[in-house]
Design the sequence.
């Protein structure tokens, strides 16, 4: 196993892209906020403490059909264990209609080294498939295990092959609400018998990633990559803090790259006219956020600070959260028509990417309900938006669901037959965006 040096403190930067000019009486201000973290995530340990990971493996009876799923899950989990950095706390959970500890099995986390990795992989060989699926119990056990140690980075990896049939949607939602903010979690669906909205909902609630692994043979590579990403996180519980002056209303706050995620409803108050929006854990990476606010009407020549955007992280000493970086969103009223009607390229790009994600979801929902005209219109619009924005990956996925007649015009025909894996892949990855070219 590779040796890792002591982590350095990451540096965060905030860049704001907007057209601050409004016509007389104009109120809507939009800005793309790019947040970049560098210099602290390459070594994979928390800056002020240890990292912990719990791997939750579906062991319900359906994992034996075909047998390659269970075998692939064992191999993938073993590969993820091999990717653990020395000193990382970890555990493996078998998930059925109940959650069971596979390793280390004493209600605690093991600490990764050559011995514990070998023991964990030996325990994985004894995994068998039986029982049902109650994902909320898996998440609650992961939470208990991660809270048993003093950790800075707390992360889960969850694999399922089926629908959450042995607990109510309300029970899963309650588990997600209980775990939100306590650890992040990446979720994967293997095969095609699982529910996309369940898996993406888990990842969304716990600020992780979601994806499909249609062929169990791809699980090991996917798990290795996921664990590598987890080992690259250096700062946890980072929040985007938005302060607005009196009279300014917040329309929405969304992450728009690398995926679309609406954070508006996740605001927690942070003092007078300030609120925090969770962003999870960070390594060496860059993300884009769309902030939209409505300012009071004003006359030509006036200007104001429309919002202040800050990155906030917990104080390791237990004091007030510490600011990492900040940027300003401005509003300036002008009678220059060219200036006030110009749309900032970054804002225009990500507005289109958010519409693209919505169009794909609406189109697939219409297709499932038998509304062929609605599906054709929405998926045609999605093809058009993907072409205009240069989102080649999404365009390729769309081409497996529709025959593209004219991408620029958005003219398509629904395919008569679509592989279930292709449709699920498009739905699962519909929120993935392409970065704007600057």
Sequence:
């Amino acid at each position: 196993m590779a040796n890792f040096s002591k982590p350095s403190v990451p540096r965060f930067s905030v860049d704001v892209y907007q057209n601050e000019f409004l016509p007389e009486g104009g109120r809507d201000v939009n800005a793309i906020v790019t947040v970049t973290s560098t210099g602290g995530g390459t070594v994979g340990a928390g800056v002020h403490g240890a990292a912990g990971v719990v791997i939750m493996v579906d062991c319900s009876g359906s994992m034996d059909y075909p047998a390659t799923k269970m075998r692939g899950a064992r191999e993938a989990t073993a590969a993820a264990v091999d990717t653990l950095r020395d000193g990382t706390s970890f555990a493996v959970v078998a998930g059925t209609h109940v959650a069971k500890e596979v390793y280390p099995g004493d209600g605690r986390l093991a600490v990764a080294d050559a011995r514990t990795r070998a023991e964990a992989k030996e325990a994985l060989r004894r995994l068998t498939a039986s029982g049902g699926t109650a994902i909320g119990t898996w998440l609650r056990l992961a939470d208990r295990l991660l809270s048993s140690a003093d950790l800075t980075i707390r992360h889960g990896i969850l694999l399922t092959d089926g629908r959450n049939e042995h607990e109510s949607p309300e029970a899963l939602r309650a588990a997600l609400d209980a775990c939100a903010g306590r650890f992040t979690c990446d979720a994967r669906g293997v095969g095609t018998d699982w529910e996309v909205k369940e898996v993406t909902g888990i990842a969304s609630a716990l600020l992780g990633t979601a994806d499909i692994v249609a062929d169990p043979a791809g699980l090991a590579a996917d798990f290795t990559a996921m664990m590598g990403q987890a080992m690259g996180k250096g700062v946890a519980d980072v929040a985007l803090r938005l302060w607005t002056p009196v009279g300014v209303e917040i329309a929405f706050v969304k992450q728009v790259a690398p995926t679309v995620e609406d954070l508006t409803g996740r605001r927690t108050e942070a003092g007078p006219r300030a609120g925090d929006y969770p962003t999870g854990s960070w390594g060496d990476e860059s993300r884009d956020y769309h902030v939209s606010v409505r300012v009071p009407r004003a006359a030509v020549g006036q200007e104001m600070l429309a919002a202040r955007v800050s990155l906030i992280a917990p104080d390791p000493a237990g004091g007030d959260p510490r600011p990492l970086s900040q940027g300003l969103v401005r509003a300036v009223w002008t009678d220059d028509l060219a200036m006030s009607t110009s749309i900032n390229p970054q804002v225009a790009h990500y507005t289109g990417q958010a519409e693209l994600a919505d169009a794909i979801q609406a189109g697939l929902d219409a297709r499932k309900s038998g509304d062929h005209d609605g599906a054709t219109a929405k998926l045609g619009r999605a093809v058009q938006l993907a072409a205009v924005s240069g989102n080649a990956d999404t365009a390729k996925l769309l081409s497996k669901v529709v025959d593209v007649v004219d991408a620029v015009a958005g003219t398509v025909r629904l395919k008569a037959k679509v592989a279930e894996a292709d449709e699920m892949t498009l739905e699962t990855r519909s929120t993935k965006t392409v970065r704007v070219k600057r």
Confidence is low (pLDDT under 50) at residues 1-7, 41-48. The CA atoms of residues 78 and 233 lie 21 Å apart. The two ends are 39 Å apart (CA to CA).
